[in-house]
Amino acid sequence: MPRPRSLTPDRLAAAALAVIDRDGLAALSMRTVARELGMSPMGLYRYVSDREELEGLVVDRVLGDLDTTPPAADAPWRDRIETMVGRLRDAVVRHPEAIQLTLTHRHRAPGGLLWSETVLGILAEAGIDGTRRVVALRALHGYVTGAIRLEHLGPLAGTGTSAIAALPEHRFPYLTQTARTAGEVGPDQEFFGGLRLLLRGLDG
Question: How far is CA 10 from CA 58, 139, 143, in A?
């Protein structure tokens, strides 16, 4: 196969992300990305050394436009954290199959590092320090990751909720009632409602 011209890191990342979006993270490999680019796997090794490097490029692309600027300092700290978490959600929700990579490459992705630095600064200003700050940051990362994957794999508007609502009510009275109510909850209400519960718990 001919060697593609202008094979930049961004173009490599776009090809890898196309594979992930279409076929899932497990499908990502040097071979599948080479096929996406119309080149041989050996030719791809001229540009990247392995799948791990491809993953790093994907994360850089996903988080490349993430706004890490600290929100207005005169706003309540919970509102500032909510703004930062909302920005992260906006950046990764379009590529839910790639969200795991934002965690595994968090130690070297500039966008993710700057996001965490800003969030830690807000937590410090709120008096959350030491091990509480460690747990708070991990909890926020875990919430974003889990909430987006849950919305992607089992949305409230999906068939799973309908199936739960149709369960025998005498055996699952609370579950069926909750599933019926779930149809009234939109994705933003679900995401930010859960986040606010988490943020209130950080004062404990």
Answer: 8, 31, 28
